[in-house]
Amino acid sequence: MADEVILLNFWPSMFGMRTMIALEEKGVKYEYREENVINNKSPLLLEMNPIHKKIPVLIHNGKPVCESIIQIQYIDEVWSDKNPFLPTDPYQRAQALFWADFIEKKLFVCGRKTWATKGEELEAATKEYIEILKTLQCELGDKPYFGGDKFGFVDIVLIGYYSWFPAYQKFGNFSIEPECSKLMAWGKRCMQRASVAKALPDSEKVVGYVLQLKKFYGIE
Amino acid sequence: MADEVILLNFWPSMFGMRTMIALEEKGVKYEYREENVINNKSPLLLEMNPIHKKIPVLIHNGKPVCESIIQIQYIDEVWSDKNPFLPTDPYQRAQALFWADFIEKKLFVCGRKTWATKGEELEAATKEYIEILKTLQCELGDKPYFGGDKFGFVDIVLIGYYSWFPAYQKFGNFSIEPECSKLMAWGKRCMQRASVAKALPDSEKVVGYVLQLKKFYGIE
């Protein structure tokens, strides 16, 4: 039986981008279904992720896998013959999971503040955002990828945010490049990969989406 | 070379309890070092977890592994010959990771509100806490453990909270048993295991600790 793989997603989601990249890297054929998460979630989404009711949902032969980081691990284990994402050494695996968790805990919440707050709160948020990126840049070091010579798990977890950087910078009125030029070079390097280029939306489109969000939430 | 394993912990931490249980289940010999996380973190803790500066830290042959859920996975992979925690099937692994993530996202934050808030906020928190536990109880179903017939990954992730239930109920003035009797029976079942009995502190001691916390934060 051929695998039936469906991805329920919403295009600006940096979480959904991860799962798309993972599927593309493994060469898995899948059906992409765009969800309207703001106004009208599909019955399938609510059925497949009754706990969180959130995208992305990966549906493999009718069975749902939820949460993007878990989806990447699942894809890595099911399609294990090609492009492994996680190292095999337990210590290196733990380190990769640690940085994925760090990104998960820090980047979304702080990023949101760059367009949803103002004044002192905004100033603190943009400073914190740069500090988070500097920490990640320090972990990257002189390696081409977080995975070393190969594009891997942490790269997949982080790269979606790269498409949001222009929006964060525009609305937060700050600049990432001066202190994080190595990380920006890493982003450009990742964008050379077909999987990443396909999964990441145009940054200008993200800027437009954030404008919509600001209007939706009544943020001046 | 014999393995040198050190656990930096603070006894009331439900996160540290997980790592202790995992080590005990695998029969790993380790040195337990109690940290004073409120007033005086040790130089070793700050050196081994410079990013979060938090316990528990597992130090294996001089190298740190941080974040309790990652520590459980690491212990499972390194000492793989005994009592596997995670299933081998990728879909079942993804499900176990999903429930661990659910516990991680929901239980600590809501639990804290049961002793740190009052009025409407407290009322909402205690209702939410019961709903979270009911969701977990539904996942448990009629199985003896979340891992099925065997005590496994999700059981290890959740059981530490059981030692906090009396404190949550006392300060939040609510009762878990009426709607969650199956989950309470699961807790009692887990307490029969030597690993769990050793890792979980006496609930009355936790009540005393929460009283200290309330004074520390000036919460009446």
From TrEMBL, chains A, B:
The keyword Transferase applies. It is found in: Cytoplasm, Cytosol. It is an enzyme of class 2 (transferase). It comes from the Eukaryota. Residues 89-209 form the GST C-terminal domain. One of its GO terms (biological process) is toxin catabolic process. Residues 3-83 form the GST N-terminal domain. PANTHER family: GLUTATHIONE S-TRANSFERASE U21 (PTHR11260:SF754), GLUTATHIONE S-TRANSFERASE, GST, SUPERFAMILY, GST DOMAIN CONTAINING (PTHR11260). This is glutathione transferase.
